[in-house]
Every structure is written in C-alpha cells, then in structure tokens.
Write a structure and sequence with these properties.
13 strands, Beta Polymerase, domain 2, 4 domains
Length: about 450
C-alpha cells in the first residue's frame, strides 16, 4: 500500500536512509491513512540518535523539542516534523512519564512501548506498513486493544485510559474486553493525571459519534474525573416528562447535539444539579425547581477544576442557565434572547434545547415547535432585525446631542432597544429621537 506523504516527510526519510539509518512514519498518521481519515501531522521514528540526527539535518532548522527523550523537531519546507529515536522506556513512577529512556536500533522495541495496536503501525514508502501487533486486523475489526498487557499499559500512563475512550468515541470502535476490564480496574490512576490533560481528552471524547455508548458503558471512569456525576446515575426522574434516569437522559442529550465540544459539555452538565433539588408533590411526582441554578453552581466548580478557560466557562454556564427557558417561535421572545446572549449562543441554546427535548418522553415532543423557532431565528438574522444597541438607528453621540447627561446614555439606549424589540417603536432615527425627547427627558 502506498501513502501520499508530504514532500518534507519523504525528504526526511531519504536523508536518514542515505546516512545509513532507518526511518518510518508512525502512529496516528498511519492509522488515519489506513482509515482514509484526515491527517493533521506526521510523527516519525528513526534508528538515529538525536546526536546523529543533528548531523543528518545540519542544513535545516532544528528545535530540541524533547532531546532528553530522543525527540527533535526538524523544519523542512515549512513543515515541522517531530522525529524520535527508537526507544525503550523504564518504569513510570508517576503513571505518566518514564523515569528514563534508552535508545534502541530496533523498530519493534519502539512500537512495543506504545499504547494501542492501531497506534503501533509504522510506514515506509519502500516497505509498506510494518505491523508487529496485529494493528491492521484491529483496524479492520474496529477494535481498540492495548499492546500486550493492558494493566501494564495503563499503569505506565494513566492518560491512556482516557485515550482509549476517546478513540472508541471518535472512531466508533469497540474496546477489547481485556482492555475494557483493565480500564475499569485502573480508573483510580486517573487522579494522578494533570487536569489540563484530562480536559483535552474529555473534550475530544465528547465530540465523537460513539459518545453515547462510552458515557453509558463507562460512567465509573467519568465519575473519577467529575465525581458530581455519580448522583445522576440511576437517579430516576419519576416525572411523566422523562423516560430515562438523569444520567442516561444527559448522555442522550450529549449525543443529540452537534459535534461542538463546549455545547456537548453543557449538555453533559445541564442537569447535574437535579439530584440535589429533587422534591415530590402530593402525587409522588418528582419536580426539580431551580435545578438550572444548582447545575450552574456545580458546573462552575467542575469547569474551573478541569482548567477550562474563563471564556469557555462563560459559554457553558450561559447555556446551562437558560436551557430550561423554552424558546418559542415568537419574534419578540427570540430577539430578547438574542439581545441577552448574542447570536452564536442563541443558536447553541436552541441546539441544546432540541437535544434535551429529544432525550425526554415522546409525549412531550417539541421538535416541530423548535423547527419553527429556527425558521423564525434565521429570518430575524437574515433581515437584520434589531436586537442589539449596535443595531439601533442611533448611537451614543445622537443621544448626547439631545442634552442628555453622559451617565444616562447607556440606560437610554437600552430602553430604546427594548421598545424596538417589543415593536412599540420603529428602528429609525426619527422615531427613536422622538421617543427619547417625549418620554425619557
């Protein structure tokens, strides 16, 4: 099998081979090429040591990315290539990084230290794919399988637990039974991993097409990362609006949203406060008053703990705050939503509410109504109807010219915006000036 490798990669292989060293493309790029998926970067491995690589690539820009562990970044034709010496790793004291590495001249040594069989494939233009661990068979069978002993693989690097779930979610692959067993048995090791790395893998996991199956099969793993999820599992709604327990409902909501990581994170956490506010009426029907507020409170702590940026936290919490305020196909209501949270978040909120509704009882299906909301929202945006101060036919200078105190300008513009949204006055300069003159001065 021949892959279309970038010219820079072919150049690097040729230079290393001509100097007497082996060189292969390795890992994710080989996996994705075989699956006919996009390739975003090319990692390479070689029998040359870092010192020897420096001689081979003396005419190119070299960055000592991780020279201690045998990795150099070589810039060829504007492409940055990470090239790593074949290596054997020692024990992993912190369940993440090897205590030491030793270089090898044997490709198999290097491939054997990797996480999963589908990531332990190497490729050379003249030799094709090198597969020591039946990775191609697992690719064909859509299986995620740890190399050799899965318990040892996860003990070496606990982040591999999250990577297994991520690959299963994004590739829509099943996890081999022994690998799955080791994931459950090794889950506590995730507490040793930095929150930044957990954050990155979790977001990648959430945007997979297979995310529902992963959330349902591995709630115990998610609970290590987000302990606040535990009370949702098997907490039945006991309410005619719902047919699933709170956790399963949330998993359905996640899988029903578009593949946007922040939107899916909001879907995962949107009802996380429900178990804490659950209360029964006289008919033994459960209700969840102010659950959005409790969910926001818990989600804020979770997102900060997982090192989300302030911007992303604001986005997710805004969606959770308003997820239970049902949008209806009313122009005024939709424009008020646009005024409150902006266009992008309004569209995301609509997607969250659609997904939330799909995860409920069919007796309360609102999909037709949400379709009408989308049509109305699109029409408002297309016609550029006013929903923000910037879209008003007047600005601060116009108000100031009327003799208004500077401290009152923002308040007056907001009042005008509300009157325009409520369709009490037209968004024309003449109408707005007249309204201010006769009502606000």
């Amino acid at each position: 099998m021949q892959f279309n490798l970038p010219e820079a990669v072919l150049t690097a292989i040729e230079l290393l081979n001509n100097a007497g060293y082996e060189a292969f493309v390795v890992g994710g790029s080989v996996r994705n090429a075989l699956l006919e998926l996009p390739i975003y970067d090319y990692d390479m491995t070689t029998s040359a040591t870092p010192k020897e690589m420096k001689v081979v690539f003396k005419d190119y820009k070299i960055i000592e990315t991780g020279i201690k562990h045998g990795t150099l970044t070589i810039h060829i034709n504007h492409l940055a290539l990470e090239i790593t010496t074949y290596r054997i790793e020692s024990d992993y004291a912190d369940h993440r990084h090897p205590n030491s590495v030793s270089f090898s001249r044997n490709l198999k040594d290097d491939l054997e230290r990797r996480d999963f069989t589908i990531n332990a494939l190497a490729y050379h233009p003249n030799h094709g794919v090198i597969d020591y661990f039946n990775g191609i068979e697992d690719l064909n069978n859509h299986i995620i399988r740890a190399i050799n002993d899965p318990m040892k693989r996860f003990d070496e690097d606990a982040l591999r637990i999250m990577r297994a779930l991520r690959f299963s979610s994004t590739l829509n692959f099943a996890i081999d039974s022994q690998t799955a067993k080791a994931i459950h048995e090794s889950k506590e090791l995730l507490t040793m991993i930095s929150k930044e790395r957990i954050h990155d893998e979790l977001l990648k996991l959430l945007i997979g097409d297979n995310v529902y199956e992963i959330l349902i099969e591995y709630p115990d793993i998610l609970e290590i990362i987000i302990p606040e999820l535990a009370p949702m599992v098997n907490c039945h709604h006991e309410n005619p609006h719902h047919i699933y327990d709170i956790y399963t409902h949330s998993a359905h909501a996640v899988s029903n949203t578009p593949n946007d990581s922040l939107l899916r994170m909001a879907a995962l956490l949107h009802d996380i406060g429900k178990p804490y506010v659950k209360a029964y009426d006289n008919f033994k029907i459960a209700h969840y008053q102010k659950h959005a507020e409790k969910s926001v409170e818990l989600a804020g702590k979770i997102l900060n703990r997982l090192k989300f940026s302030n911007k992303d936290i604001k986005t997710i919490l805004t969606l959770i705050t308003h997820h239970d305020e049902y949008m209806i196909p009313d122009r005024i209501q939709i424009k008020k939503c646009l005024a409150l949270i902006g266009k992008e978040l309004t569209y995301q909120l609509l997607e969250l509410q659609i997904a939330d509704n799909k995860a409920k009882s069919k007796l309360y299906d609102r999909q037709k109504e949400y379709h009408e909301v989308r049509i109305t929202l699109d029409d408002i945006i297309q016609k550029e109807e006013c929903f923000s101060i910037k879209m008003l036919a007047i600005n601060g200078n116009d108000v100031l010219s009327l003799g208004v105190k500077p401290t009152m300008i923002t308040s007056i513009l907001n009042t005008c915006l509300n009157e325009v949204i409520e369709e009490h006055i037209e968004n024309t300069k003449e109408s707005l000036i007249s309204y201010i003159t006769h009502n606000l001065m």
